[in-house]
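Appendix B, Record 12. Input sequence as logged:
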Amino acid sequence: MQNNPNTPHENPPLDAEDWQNAFEPYKGHPSAALQLSFCLNALRDYVLDDPVDEEVITGAIERALDALYPHSDFHMLCRKFFNKVVEGDMTLEEEQMLKKLGIKF
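Logged structural output:
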């Protein structure tokens, strides 16, 4: 999100539907769901610690985001563009877009 002084800096609370959507892939995978529950419980404990160690919390969340990235479409999209550059199959529009993003090739 862009830094806009008219926009609150807080994210809206996550509601039950947000969590149901996020955890849908765990349906039928009880071991993975349990492992994620352990991780979420540890995050909750970090937040409840007195005093709160923000570096521990943000570090844990950053590691979680890094671990999720390979499972996202963004990961595959980046690999697709990497392959196109290596194979010389980039369209002019794709080249221009990547140059605007600061990608040098």
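The chain has two domains: 29-71, 72-105.
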